[in-house]
Amino acid sequence: MQTMVESATQTITIAASPEHCFEVATDFARYPEWAKDVKEAVVRERDEAGRATAVEFRASALGRSTHYTLAYDYSAAPEKLSWQLVRGDITRAIDGAYTFSPSPTDPGSTDVVYDLSIELVVPLPGFLKRRAEVRILNTVKELKARAEA
């Protein structure tokens, strides 16, 4: 079966501390409130510090409902939160990360870099690819609104 890798990187400046941005990004139970494609997020495993290390998501993708589980890596926390796919129904791989750093141009704010790479089981038609890119941008904007609120 043919696969296709899609990648996106987005940087946004948020008027909040890196630590606060990290807290918002790791509040997985609240993702359905602000990540429009996420319909449900259930923490399946936690580490000894109580941080979610495996989260199962139900989301809208490619015009259908999809399920996937991501494993989260806190080894570079709170400067970076990264994740990888454990299991998915329309994806073979999802690798991503949020990097949080003080903004050099906006004191008291945080530059958040969102990197995402997805390996799909089927190629995306152009219009779906553009729609996915818009949704990624909207998710980052919602992260910003949530962190600044």
Describe this entry's structure for a reader:
Helix content is 23%, strand content 48%. It has 3 helices and 7 strands. It has helices at residues 18-25, 31-34, 126-148, and strands at residues 4-14, 38-46, 52-61, 64-73, 80-88, 91-102, 110-120. A 7-stranded antiparallel β-sheet has the order 1-7-6-5-4-3-2. The mean pLDDT is 84.
Write the layout of secondary structure elements.
Layout: E1 4-14, H1 18-25, H2 31-34, E2 38-46, E3 52-61, E4 64-73, E5 80-88, E6 91-102, E7 110-120, H3 126-148
Antiparallel strand pairs: 1-7, 2-3, 3-4, 4-5, 5-6, 6-7
Helix pairs in contact: 1-3
Number of helices: 3
Question: Low-confidence runs (pLDDT<50, min 5 residues)?
Answer: none
* First-last Cα distance: 45 Å
Tell me, briefly, the overall form. globular
Structural class: alpha+beta
Strand residue percentage? over 45%
Order of helices and strands: EHHEEEEEEH
Biggest sheet overview: 7 strands, antiparallel
What is the gyration radius calculated from CA atoms?
15 Å
**Count of strand segments:** 7
| Mean pLDDT rating | 84
Spatial order of the strands forming the largest sheet = 1-7-6-5-4-3-2
Proportion of helical residues: 10-25%
Brief account:
By secondary structure, the protein is α+β, with helices and mostly antiparallel strands.
Keywords:
3 helices, about 150 residues, seven-stranded antiparallel beta sheet, alpha+beta
